[in-house]
Amino acid sequence: xxxxxxxxxxxxxxxxxxxxxxxxxxxxxxxxxxxxxxxxxxxxxxxxxxxxxxxxxxxxxxxxxxxxxxxxxxxxxxxxxxxxxxxxxxxxxxxxxxxxxxxxxxxxxxxxxxxxxxxxxxxxxxxxxxxxxxxxxxxxxxxxxxxxxxxxxxxxxxxxxxxxxxxxxxxxxxxxxxxxxxxxxxxxxxxxxxxxxxxxxxxxxxxxxxxxxxxxxxxxxxxxxxxxxxxxxxxxxxxxxxxxxxxxxxxxxxxxxxxxxxxxxxxxxxxxxxxxxxxxxxxxxxxxxxxxxxxxxxxxxxxxxxxxxxxxxxxxxxxxxxxxxxxxxxxxxxxxxxxxxxxxxxxxxxxxxxxxxxxxxxxxxxxxxxxxxxxxxxxxxxxxxxxxx
Length: 389
Fold this sequence. Notes:
- With 389 residues, the protein is of the alpha/beta class.
- The chain has a domain at 90-301: SGNH hydrolase (Rossmann fold), CATH 3.40.50.1110.
- It is 33% helix and 9% strand.
- The protein is built from nine helices and nine strands.
- It has helices spanning 2-27, 42-47, 77-80, 103-115, 142-153, 182-200, 217-236, 279-297, 361-368; strands at 95-101, 122-126, 157-161, 170-172, 175-177, 206-209, 240-242, 258-260, 266-268.
- It has a five-stranded parallel β-sheet, sandwiched between helices.
- Helix 4 (103-115) links the parallel strand 1 (95-101) and strand 2 (122-126).
């Protein structure tokens, strides 16, 4: 009984001590300044133990972000590109190439201007009308207007390309004729011949450029027929027809959007509509015409020419008019034993040799995609030959 009383007394004393300690701790510091301290249980106060008060983690102050050194702005691709070539000033008496026709002729003139940009003796003049043709002479009459344009420009060469807008009915004697009917074809050939005679009759060389294939199969079929009319009438008049068909079709003769450009690389040649030409297509179109134009222009097309005069400007070969009489020059026969007695050193009618018209390997590559065989012994010649024993 006595022991029980002692235990109760001890517990009361411990409880009193605990309450006194709580009062002392709570009054030792203001609530605003005191740190958070983990409170101990009664058993921890009597017998000790428990977790040690952890030191508050030091506050981490983010270091100031170091300012990066200013980097030099990158040069744009346009600034790093090669500067454009200076524009070559044309000579005052430069020879003029007149281009007439529809929207394809306009594209052709763009390509020719680029091809002759470095030739001071050649100027390309565009007089095309995008919506014109030979059918709607009420809109624009090429046979009637070509003579006045030639008289105004006084060109050295006339280049014609049209026909893309002519897939429509044609009025003949007040009647509307269907496309490619017998009457339509006859009348269209007559109008083509009238335009050719207007140009050739003014003693100007004519280069007539054919039309290419188009995305529409029906339109392509009509262009084949028109090219046949152009070729027949142009060659009958003694002018030159330039066929560009193979440059814008595949090996099966079908329309293509992409093909070989003037450097032999694959490029987009036609627009998304399958009608208009891209810049690469314009350059390829001009590629077909450039060779014939340079042959007619002679030294005037050289990029190194500084002046045009009698000493460096040969006479151009003018085509004969269809109805012009043939001028036959007769001379007395010369004996075989004394040919020098005639006082001449050249045969009758001698003319300076013209450049060869044979197609080069580059022509085959660009026009038909045909690569010439490598000569024997070159690194790209893969033909196997049996070694000699």
